[in-house]
Amino acid sequence: MSAKKILFIFSINLIAIFLICISMHFYIFYKDTTLGSDSKPEISYVFQQYISFLVRDISEKDTYHNLIHSEEFRAVENKDSKKKPILIFGCSFAWGSDLEENQTISYKLGQATKRPIYNRARMGWSVQHMLYQLQQDEFYKIVPKPEYIIYICIGGHEIRLNTPVSPTFPNCYYIFYKMKNDKLIQKKRTFYSDKFLFQHFINNKYPKSNITDMLPYFKEAKNIVEKKWGKDVKFVILFYERMENEKLLSELKKLGFIMINEDEMPIKADNVKYHLSETDNHPNEKAWDEIVPFLVKRLKLND
After folding, report:
1. Which partner from 35, 36, 41, 295 sits 20 to 30 angstroms from 69, CA to CA?
2. Average pLDDT, the chain
3. Full-model pTM
4. Topology of 70-162+207-298 in CATH?
């Protein structure tokens, strides 16, 4: 048998083994996949997510770009204003899910105060994405020192500390930390850790989490802000949905955070008239029309 024929047979067998391995790997994904307790998603949907998982880019460069230089951030309001800026962090509530630019909290806050407003929130994000940005030197070339930082917190942010929340798996979602010697250390991503996270998402199952898990993130974020910008920056946590965890509230108060709980605000988060729709509880424009004047008065933003 010629060397060329041996090489051909070897190549065919190698390709066959590769395809079998991929098929078995996908079968395991699909076999263990459910959405909710009783339903299984279409195989085409799982396959699409599976391919996204296989070809994902986990490089630090890609993560860095998505978190610092993404084009999906809201426009900066009043960028040339000489007034002291306001910096906003959070998730889709803060970003403005399904809202036009002129319907968002950042636009309305800019109109009410004429201050520069930097909205650094994104869909599905949580407190770890705020921390990651504050840790990057490049961030401070984009965002000037603010007078106020406002983190808009909703129920479920603690779950996102360990779980992907986007069906398209953009790489910027994979920002995870672990506690080591009472400090938060960023975890390294691997194929198997991402596979584990993928299964969490595709099965709609979330790891056990406690709202107090967010405390080290807030603490570290505040420490960084004080080192970079000084202690005169006021750090506000706006609990858009009522926070009842007394331990978290007590610890945040000790650390010097300004906290605004839902019962202070002029609206109730569960009132459907402030929702995008009856099935979507994201805030609509009317919600911000009532909250923004309250914030301006409460934080004395026009003094």
Report:
1. 295
2. 86
3. 0.83
4. Rossmann fold (3.40.50)
pLDDT tens for each residue of 75-99: 999 999 999 999 999 999 999 999 9
Is the CB of residue 144 less than 8 Å from the CB of residue 95? Answer: no
Enumerate the domain spans of the chain.
1-31, 70-162+207-298
Helix/strand/coil (H/E/C) assignment for every residue in the chain: CCHHHHHHHHHHHHHHHHHHHHHHHHHHHHHCCCECCCECCCHHHHHHHHHHHHCCCCCHHHHHHHHHCCCCCCCCECCCCCCCCEEEECCHHHHCCCCCHHHCHHHHHHHHHCCCEEECCCCCCCHHHHHHHHHCCCHHHHCCCCCEEEEEECCCCCHHHCCCCCCCCCHHHCCCEEEECCEEEECCCCHHHHHHHHHHHHCCCCCCCCHHHHHHHHHHHHHHHHHHHCCCCEEEEEECCCCCCHHHHHHHHHCCCEEECHHHCCCCCCCHHHEEECCEEEECHHHHHHHHHHHHHHCCCCC
Decide if 140 contacts 105 (C-beta within 8 A): no
Per-residue pLDDT for 169 more than 70? no
- Do 115 and 85 meet the contact criterion of CB atoms below 8 Å apart? yes
Q: Higher confidence at residue 205 or residue 250?
A: 250
| CA R_g for the chain | 23
Residue 71 in tokens: 């084009």
At position 7, the amino acid (one-letter code) is: L
Q: What is the pLDDT of residue 168?
A: 47
Paired tokens of 131: 């921390």
* Structure-token pair, residue 258: 């300004």
Select the more confidently predicted residue: 237 or 36: 237
Distance of CA 231 to the CA centre of its chain: 26
20-24, 42-46, 237-241 — most confident range: 237-241
